[in-house]
Amino acid sequence: MSESATTERALILAPHGRDSTVASALLGEVGIAAHACPDLPALCAALEDGAGLLILAEEAVRTADLQGLVAWIGAQPPWSDLPVILLTLRGAGAERTPEAARLTELLGNVTFVERPFHPTTLISVVRTCLRGRRRQYEARARLVERERLLADLADERARFETLVEHLPVGVNLMDRNGRTILSNPAFRRFLPDGVIPSRRPDGEESWITYDAQGRLLSRDRFPGACALRGETVSGMEFIYRSTGEQPVWTRVSGVPVRDSTGKAAGALAVIVDISDQKAAQEALQRLTETLESKVQERTRELAATLDQLRDEIRDRERAEEQLRQTQKLETLGQLTGGVAHDFNNLLMAVLGNLELLRKRLPADPTTERLFDGAMQGAQRGATLTQRLLAFARRQDLQPQAVDLTGLLDGMKTLLERSVGPRVVIRIDARPATVPALIDPNQLELAILNLAVNARDAMPDGGTLTVTVDEVPVPVASGLPSGSYPYVSVRDTGTGMDEGTLARAIEPFFSTKGIGKGTGLGLSMVHGLAVQSGGAFRLSSVPGQGALVELWLPKATMPAQAAELPPAPAADVSPAVVLVVDDDALIAMSTVDMLADLGHTVIEAGSGVEALELLRSGQAVDLLLTDYAMPGMTGVELAQAARAMAPDLPVLLATGYADLPEGVVADLPRLAKPYTQNQLAVATAKLLAEMARTSAHAKPVDGLHREPRAGIHR
Fold first, then answer.
1. In 420-486, where does DSSP find H-type helix?
2. Chain segment 630-640, per-residue pLDDT in tens
């Protein structure tokens, strides 16, 4: 039952006769809820759930114990006066029966209806009682809302008083007569009695201020007095002189408080202590007065500082220009490195297929000449890509401890043949130079390139000086300060102007004629130095030659002896080789070269596919994988494969050392592009090592299986 139906229902107590049934039926027909109670305790219990009125038969209450009902009626809240309809016998009204008067006194809001009653009479009386009861409920709602509003108002006032009490400024609220209504401790600090200065007795000089003309301000123009007249005064400065204390600077404002008609009903005065601000202003004024002399004293120092600043600006401009040049070269390096890597893969396919095709075609002088031309062109392209990768700092370097003096001694004859008899070579090498950590083959190639460039810059002959020493690195190099192994190449040629010098190390930039240079010599040298962890500097003066300087990283170990060239491929037993490369053209060339060498080749297009083959139980003697593959790199594939087969040899084929920072790949590498002989040497070496390792190992059941789909013989 809903709340409205419960609070407006009629509770009926007429246990004798048919009065209860008839009344319930009549009220139900007009939509008034009714509940018949069997006895007085049940009636009192039903009252706890709510009721709109009571209908009581006189004989049910005349002799009953009404203590519980009377107690409930007496405990009603002030807004409630429960209507009671008393069904009496004919002629037994309150004016005739003392008992009726007693019930009226006990039950309060009683209406008498004589029996037998007419239905219309009963319904009319009930509706009248319910209308009165609804007005009681409305009064209750208004009282509840009033109490809520009073509580909210009390909370707001408490918050407002808390805010005012803790404000750092003095606040005083006064009525229209200037009497204080509310003030906070900050205000009472200045005015303990709450009386505003304009209302103090004449002759009080505690508050002093002046108008715009410098005249002492009268009390009727004080902010509080103006605000009571409806004027707003903001930020008027006063000197407050309290007895026995130092004067205090204050800023006083006055704001009128208006009523609903817009008239001034009071005022708000605000006092702010500005003594600290005034002290700061006075200090600033004193500082300003002495500033001129201090400025004169500092003028000479500033002049010297300005000269120093100009020097620093020039140094910074040079550094910024070097930074722009470095960023430009870095961008060019990224572009050329990507192009060179893809070109390397294409040359891999060209060289491999040319070698295989040469074996399969009948011997013919014309065909041999065409093959030689194609092979030379492809090899020149490979050399070109190596220079591009060197500039991009992505070639596969093999750094080791190198004795620079010994390296130059070994190169002297080669340099003399390369530059010709018109150029005099001088090698100025200090024997005690610490070894450098560098790829010796790439360093020899770099020095040879510089010598050839110097020769071309000295068409009438000259002097080429190669110096080896250990010298401090320049600050602009970006390397930690200290001494580094140093190599320089100086010529006495034509030199370069500023425009040419600025572009000298850009790839493919050359001042030589068509067909006389690729424009990659200096680019390769620069890339080698930076990739190796060193520094590069090029300087030149027109007519006075050029100087190329290299600072190389120190080696922590003694210089190594020169390695012997790789031996030719040894005869090895045919093996099962798993080739993994995402480039179908490269994979096809490699598979054909390995099959031509007599090996059984399994081809996979990705690392995931290769791992599936290994998990399936396919016997594999050697894994040959490309490094740069989508999804899984060659290094990751090698790690996963060795987790399944720890002794499996892995050969990593790559065009450049494009390994992420922090990845350690202790794997033998095969540089792209490679020839069939290089492939044979690398695979034979690994297979021979594997054969030696497993010479005494027992065969495993099922190691050699029948070839499956995707296997090339």
1. 440-457
2. 888 888 999 99
